[in-house]
Sequence to fold (796 residues):
Amino acid sequence: IVAGCISHPHSWPWQISLRTSYGLHFCGGTLIDPQWVLTASHCLEKSSRPSSYKVYLGLHEERALETSVQKRDVEKLFKEPHRADIALLKLRSPAIITDQVIPVCLPKENAVLGGREECYVTGWGDTKGTPGEGYLKETGFPVIENKICNRPEFLNGRVKKHELCAGNIHGGTDTCQGDSGGPLVCLDQDRFVQHGVTSWGLGCAQPMKPGVYVRVSNYIPWIKSIMENN
Amino acid sequence: KGDILDDYLRTDGVWILTRNKEFYSTNNEKECAEKCDAEINFNCRGFLFTKKKLQCLTLAENTKTTVVFHSEDAVLYEKKIYLLQCKRGIGKDYRGTEAKTWRGIPCQKWAEKSPHNPNFTPEKHPRAELEENYCRNPDGDVRGPWCYTTDPATRFDYCNIPECEGQVMQTGEDPTVECMECNGEDYHGNVSRTESGLECQRWDAQEPHMHGYTLKHFPGKDLKMNYCRNPDGELRPWCFTMSPTKRWEYCNIPRCTMHPPASGLGSQCISGNGDDYRGRIAITASGNTCQHWNLQFPHKHGWIPDRYPCKNLEENYCRNPDGEKMPWCYTTNATARWEYCTIPSCDGKEPDTPAVDQPEQAQATEECYQGNGVSYRGTASFTITGKKCQAWNSMSPHRHNKTSEHFPNADLRQNYCRNPDADSRPWCYTTDPSVRWEYCNLKRCNGNVQMTLPKPPQTTLEPNPDCIHSNGIDYRGTVARTARGRTCQEWSSQTPHKHDYFTPRTHPKSGLEKNYCRNPDGDVNGPWCYTTDPRKAWEYCDIPKCPPTQYECGKAKTRPKLCAQR
Fold:
């Protein structure tokens, strides 16, 4: 996360750290059920073997030395069949729900997210030299309607219908490498709903270059069917 | 001021039925109009004048609110202001008949006392013409006409009244004008076809194209029916189309004749936030030269002049196109993206030089709070890190829903520390844009004992040893008998069954203690053990499943900081 701030410890209890089998953080993810994690497909490109990955939950520091940390093996990977940048991981055993480990809510199918909604992203990714390295960081910015985001001076038609943009037009704060797969959540009444999976961007925190996220509400049917049938 | 009849819309040969009226005799329509303007018995919305009998009837109603019928000799004059279903500026003189909020909640009658006891009533504010339950703006609210609502939970809310600016009102012509000014941001006409002839999709429909241009997200943009609009600073009005293959397209709207800039002399100095400043200062407060608006270097930006023809983004002059607190510009200094400018004020006061805020010294308060501070009513207004509190009735820099409407008993006055939502101690939103809220600089009255948050009873850090989640790979209970009743063999033992794969040494993390049932290989059927029966190498154990864990998705136990960067 570029700029933003260090989050209050465990104030984003659905945030997970996706790691190599020897414990190196390389992507984010989101706990949506005690036994299921949502992440980005491109985080799973290195290997299609579940045993190559580990999921860490309940952590604030990237070092993951807190007593609240839970570590889980991955039992199975499910990539979205039409090459969207979203994937599901089934944990070998469910996470234990604690104050530090709580799943996020999922949006309704095809929920409409208007422009200017204030949403938040979190992660342990690259901070581009801004403070907070090694701690779970957060930042917030408005969602930008696809129509505006596809203007020539923004992302010039690159954003697909199943994606959404979010960021500050002046840049300055953004997700970055290592945040991929993590959540973009928006407050709905008094709870957070995950509307996006951190996916790609043209650089990090550049003016006129908002981050792009997979629109989770498009994939609710797919998520449901995978969870129900596995 | 021009002819008095300019304010009226004339219709020949009609008569309207109205209870409230007064009779006069005048020589001509002008005199009758003067009677109407001077009427004190009711709000005169217009008058009838009969040419033969020289009768003048001042009317409390107009064709919008009562029945019209034919009358050869009569001429009806209606005050235009009462015909407009749109507002000028903040709508202080709006007299339309809109009677629901922008969310669609019916308005409460101004004269009624329930469900809300109003501060603004027809008796107290006769000039505001608080009739029926029509949206009005009696207090000059910058956000325009509003009303008390019939929803007990919502005391008041704003109404979605379209802007009237720029419309040219012709006598007898339909008040919505079929031309646009500038880029048509204020166009309110009813063209509903695109330049290539495609029919427009309704704004409140999500088929065939899903979108976020909803009334909720773009209030005040008059996104009505399927009319072409420009809610987002496009080059001109547009709409989503009914063609599945064409998401959106511009519409062809004729341009009206341009109006001169709103402020004459004012354009060389600033009044208010300087959004009408048209001077030629092109240097920022810190001395940086401004970047030309039509350049994208050194700073890329979205304020492209031809996209905003009415903002006069000429050359590199300081401007305020987006409601900032004063004119600004992008700078030619690569490290300073944009800065405010110092512009002389029109009222002769010293120009508003944008100094960097100096944090005010935190006021040391000796006050304290009882319990978790829900009943605290002191005046402390600084946070534990010394940040000043944001006023509760302000939405800047942080939007929120902790308003006195939603928390009437929380005494959310000024920017005093409060605890409206039963948190652990008094807190407030901060004036620091990067820190949404913090606890306050207050001690608890009975000593400075740090309050630890009570743990909700249903959350335990250790897994419940007596039941299993899913396949029980984490089971750490002490059951040591198989489902068939056989005693389990010790994991560390090789008799009666020799095994070298599942041992405490080879699987240190699987909890292979004593002869307890375990699931070291993630068997889908759950925990098992080797048995002491020489005839049976191993068997499953019978461990009950734990009840599903209760939790509320999306709700953290620790409140997030919610820092947002502007």
In short: The radius of gyration of chain A is 16 Å. Helices of chain A lie at 146-149, 220-229. The first strand of chain A starts at residue 5 and ends at 6.
